[in-house]
Amino acid sequence: MVVVGDGAIGAGMSLEALNHAGDLKKNLLVVLNDNEMSISNTVGAFSKYLNKIRTAPLYVDMRKEIHNLLNVVPVFGKPVGKTLEHVVELISRGASVPGQIFKDLGFNYFGPIDGHDFRILIETLNNMKHLEGPLLLHVVTEKGRGFEPACQNPTQYHSAGKFEMCDGKIKNTANTTPKISYTKVFGDTMLEMGKADARVVGITAAMPDGTGIVSFGKKFPDRFYDVGICEQHAVGLANGLSAGGLKPVVAIYSTFLQRAYDQVFHDICLQRNGVVFALDRAGIVGNDGPTHNGMFDIAYLRNLPEIVLMAPKDGNELKSMLRIALDSGRPVAIRYPREDIPEEKLSPHYKAFEIGKAEVLREGADGALLAYGAMVYRCLQAAEKLSEKGIEVTVVNARFAKPLDKELILELVRNHKLIITVEDHVLMGGFGSAVLELVSDERENVNKISRMGIPDRFIEHGPRNLMLKNIGLDEGGIADKFIATLDLLNIRGSFTKTAKQRLSV
C-alpha cells in the first residue's frame, strides 16, 4: 500500500510511478490523501481536477444508490452490478467521471470518501483488499482536523513552534524586540526589485510562505509562478523565462534544490542563463530536522562551471547580493539560514561589491578566521573571546565560495601561521575544501589551514543554535578550536608576550 498526498500526486515521481504501476497491472493500493494542502494550498491543474471530484457528489451518490439496490437482489446482484456501473460511467461521460484520469492510467478508482469517518474508511479498505490489480482510493481529509486554530491557519501550523493549547496562540520564545529573518529580508527585497524592474519574476515550488516570496506573488501575480512540489519544473521554467529576456528568481529550500540538480546543470549552467537561486534554510535548519537541513548545496553546486555561489553575513548584504545577482546575468545561488539577521535594522541603501571579492572585518597577527555566510558574526564573537586571552585574529567575510577571492586568501596564507575556515555546511566538498584546493594549486602551505563545518553525519532535530553548539559552530566552539589547533601545530611561540602570559594562566 502507498499513501500519497494531493500536493505530491502531481509531482514528477508520483506521475511516473502511476504510469509504471498502471502498466504492470500488479496488485497495488494507492491511498490518495486529499486535504487541499501541501504546506500551502495546492496549485495546478491536478489540484483543480481533484477539487472538481470533491465538489461533484452526484455520480458517487448515484453509484451508491445502485449498489444499495443490487445488494438486496439475490443471485443477479454482482454481475448486474458490474453492468450497471459501466452504464452509469457511460452516461456520466457527458459530465465528468470522478477518477477518470486514474482509470485511463490503468487503476480502478474508488471514492472520494470521508477520511475522518473511520467506519466507512475501514469498511471500504476491507472491501477492496480482495480486489486484483492497481487500485486507488481517494480519501478526503482536512488539514489540522481536531484543532480549530490549525484548521483556520493550516500553513502556519504545518511547522508550528510553541503555542497555547487552549487557543492556539503562538508563544514568543523571548521577551526581546522582534527581529527580522533572512526570509523576510529576501521577500521585502524581491518586492523592491520587482517594482524597480518589470523583468524580475518569482518562482517557487509549493513554498510561497516558507520562502517569503508570497508578498511578491500578491503584488505581481502575472510575474509569479508557484509550480507545486515540482522543483525540476521550477528550474526548467526559470531557464525558459531567462532565455526570453526575463530575470527569474527561484526561491527554494537548499535541501529541495537537490531534486532539480539535472536542470541546474543542463538548463541553467550549460546554457549560461541568468537565473538566481535564493536558497533558504541553508545549513542547520533546526526543528524541521535532517530532511530539511541544507547542508550540501555548496558541494553539489560549486563543481558546475559558470555558477556563482554567494552567502551574506547579514541582512544588508543579502539585499545587496540579490541586486548584484540579478544584474550579473549569470547563474547565481545565494544561501542563507533560517534565523534572524544579526543587525538591529536594515539600511535602505545597497552596497556594491565585485563578484569574487571578500572583505576583512578585523585584523590580527596571531591567525585568521575565514568565515562564510552565517558564520561571519559568530567568528567575530569568537575573535572577541580570543582577544580576552590575548590572541588577536583576523576575521574575513568570504562572501563567495565560487569564485574565491584568490588574492586575499593567498595573502592570508603567506602572512599568518594558522587559518581556520568556518562554514555552516558539510566539510566534504564545501567552502573549506575549495580554499584547500586553491592553496594546494598555488603550491602554498596547506598545513596552515584547518576547517570547521558540519561533520559527516545527518544532524538530528533540535533548535538551530543548540545544534550548532553541539558540533562546535558557535562562538565558544570556534574560539576553542582555534586554541586547540594552535596547540596541535605547536606554534604558540609566535604569540605576543601578552598572549603567552594569558594562555599560561
What does this structure look like?
The protein has 505 residues and is an alpha/beta fold. The chain has three domains: 2-56 and 98-140, Rossmann fold (3-Layer(aba) Sandwich); 183-335, 3-Layer(aba) Sandwich (Rossmann fold); 359-503, Rossmann fold (3-Layer(aba) Sandwich). It has helices at 12-24, 45-54, 58-71, 77-92, 100-104, 118-128, 148-152, 182-196, 214-219, 231-243, 254-257, 261-269, 297-301, 315-328, 376-388, 406-415, 431-441, 464-470, 475-489, 497-503; strands at residues 2-5, 28-34, 108-114, 134-140, 200-204, 224-226, 247-253, 276-280, 308-310, 332-335, 359-362, 368-371, 394-397, 400-402, 419-426, 449-454. The chain has a seven-stranded mixed sheet, with helices on both faces. Strands 11-13-12-15-16 form a five-stranded mixed sheet, with helices on both faces. α3 packs antiparallel against α4, α8 runs parallel beside α14 (315-328) and α15 crosses α19. The longest helix is centred in the N-terminal third of the chain and has 16 residues, at 77-92. 41% of the residues are buried.
List the helices and strands and how they pair.
Elements: E1 2-5, H1 12-24, E2 28-34, H2 45-54, H3 58-71, H4 77-92, H5 100-104, E3 108-114, H6 118-128, E4 134-140, H7 148-152, H8 182-196, E5 200-204, H9 214-219, E6 224-226, H10 231-243, E7 247-253, H11 254-257, H12 261-269, E8 276-280, H13 297-301, E9 308-310, H14 315-328, E10 332-335, E11 359-362, E12 368-371, H15 376-388, E13 394-397, E14 400-402, H16 406-415, E15 419-426, H17 431-441, E16 449-454, H18 464-470, H19 475-489, H20 497-503
Parallel strand pairs: 1-2, 2-4, 3-4, 5-6, 5-7, 7-8, 8-10, 9-10, 12-13, 12-15, 15-16
Antiparallel strand pairs: 9-14, 11-13
Helix pairs in contact: 3-4, 8-14, 10-12, 15-19
